[in-house]
Write a structure and sequence with these properties.
Elements: H1 3-12, H2 19-30, E1 35-36, H3 37-46, H4 53-65, E2 69-73, E3 80-84, E4 92-95, E5 101-103, H5 110-120, E6 130-133, H6 136-139
Parallel strand pairs: 4-6
Antiparallel strand pairs: 1-3, 2-3, 4-5
Helix pairs in contact: 1-2
């Protein structure tokens, strides 16, 4: 994601554009897996952005409120991880041994959600699915 795309995403969602917010959005967009606040902080520091942890937490709260970021519980501790969801939701398979998280290519519950809506006369506006288990690399150890 370019700087212009990050700025446009913030603007379209009514979030004040700052250099630091743009950087956080770009970091999340480029990430291959959900990131902890500490990981975001380290990546920002590598880009010469001096941002303290409390600022990152506040930024993520704003992005969560606007639905641009999803928060996930990490199975190897009490920390949360974050993933950019601005372009649609995603689901991940997370290894409980090594902590590696892999994004699923599609939503495995779409059909079930349609059936739930029909059978309960209920309009579903969103959902979250976190799947935990043991990855192939850890299974072979």
């Amino acid at each position: 994601m370019t700087k212009v795309q990050a700025a446009d995403l913030l603007r379209r969602n009514g979030i004040k554009k700052t250099r630091q917010r743009e950087a956080v959005v770009r970091i999340l967009a480029e990430a291959q897996a959900p990131l902890s606040v500490d990981s975001i902080h380290v990546r920002l520091r590598h880009k010469d952005d001096s941002v303290n942890l409390s600022t990152i937490y506040r930024m993520l709260e704003v992005l969560l409120e606007k639905g641009l970021v999803e928060q996930m519980h990490h199975p190897l501790g009490s920390k949360f991880t974050y993933v950019l969801s601005a372009y649609g939701h995603s689901h991940h398979l997370t290894c409980t041994r090594c902590g590696v998280s892999t994004r699923m290519d599609s939503c495995p519950v779409t059909t079930a959600l349609g059936q739930l809506e029909a059978s309960h006369n209920f309009h579903i506006t969103g959902h979250r699915l976190e799947v935990f288990g043991v990855c192939a690399a850890c299974k072979s150890k």
